[in-house]
Amino acid sequence: MVNFDDHAITYRKSLGHSLMLFGQKESFFDFYKMDLLSAIISKGVAYDLMDYGCGVGKLTILIAKEFPKAKVCGYDISAESMRVAEEESAGLKNVFFTTAPSNEQKYDFIIVANVFHHVEPIERKETLLKIKMLLKPGGKIIIFEHNPLNPVTRYIVSQCPFDKDAEIILRRKFLKLTADCGLKTDGKKYILFFPWSPKIFRKMEKLLGFMPLGAQYMLVLTL
């Protein structure tokens, strides 16, 4: 398993280099996810939000800015990544980062963005059950994962230094995992069909979500 403490400082640069094939800056993919999250999470509500496996906090910080009334927790096992995230989020009052989240604190929404392909297959059920335990009744877990059916995705993962031990997961296998954990699927779709295209083309993706050609997929899970 990759030690992300070793990649915390160079994370953005390494990710940006791996994504050059898409012709987009690495931040594009975080803003893309924010568009999807904003369609699910209301801005005017004081939700408790968690970004699980947040790395250096790129997406977490965007979440905190997009939902200013929410209290946002960024969690990661990498202490060095948490240090970088805290520096990057200086001045934001509604976000904090931790390597040890409280089991007593529950969340309305838990975002898990491109995390599970870094989790050993034998540990995935235990990890998802831990996430489930952090969810409030009526809350939602929002999963983003790479789609192994997309050849461009497979190539990019193979070139990324911190994905060298990663095992990307078929959506049907992830759906079986969620069922095994007693979670219900509230939404599922493939995403990122046109990552190099103007925003107008992304409207077409709403019609293509059933097709297993997107670079990633998104799942919305409930208790």
TrEMBL record:
One Pfam family it belongs to: Methyltransf_12
Ranges of residues in domain Methyltransferase type: 50-141
InterPro entries given in the database record: Methyltransf_12 (IPR013217), SAM-dependent_MTases_sf (IPR029063)
Record's protein name: Methyltransferase type 12 domain-containing protein
Annotated organism of origin: Candidatus Jorgensenbacteria bacterium GW2011_GWA1_48_11
Taxonomic classification: Bacteria, Candidatus Joergenseniibacteriota
